[in-house]
Design brief:
47% of the residues lie in helices and 21% in strands. It is of the alpha+beta class and 131 residues long. The protein starts with a helix and ends with a helix.
């Protein structure tokens, strides 16, 4: 078998593995998002992300109650499809208005993702209460 055929088969196999990994990670994200919305249907959920070219990308979920208290903050950070969400319990229970990205995280990617999630929640809260 010529070398170009072997290389083509290897590229195709890598592409299929990447597709499978993406499917598994999206299933995990959907399951976590579904669990959050089932547990707290009366509040607001914000999702932020920070893509990295070489470093670790971040996806952050922020759940805030109608009385503007942080119920849950979860961060998924990693380079692979095996990354999972981890809770950040020291932020939970704090006032949403006092949540500052700079003081919450030292990592720039997490700060960026948190600021995006906070903006989403502020927009949703400005539209009015959840029905």
């Amino acid at each position: 078998m010529p070398i170009w055929q072997i290389a083509l088969i290897a590229v195709l196999a890598a592409w299929c593995l990447q597709g499978l990994g993406t499917y598994i990670q999206m299933r995990h994200y959907t399951a976590v998002m579904g669990e959050v919305t089932r547990l707290w249907a009366d509040g607001f959920v914000g999702a932020g992300n920070a893509r990295a070219t070489l470093g670790r990308g971040v996806i952050l979920l922020l759940v805030v109650s109608p009385d503007r208290i942080v119920r849950r903050l979860m961060v998924m950070q990693g380079r692979s499809v095996f990354a999972r969400f981890a809770r950040v319990p020291d932020v939970e229970g704090r006032a949403f208005d006092g949540l500052d990205a700079a003081s919450s995280f030292s990592d720039e990617a997490r700060r960026k993702a948190l600021s995006i999630a906070v903006q989403q929640i502020e927009k949703a809260a400005a539209r009015g209460p959840v029905a």
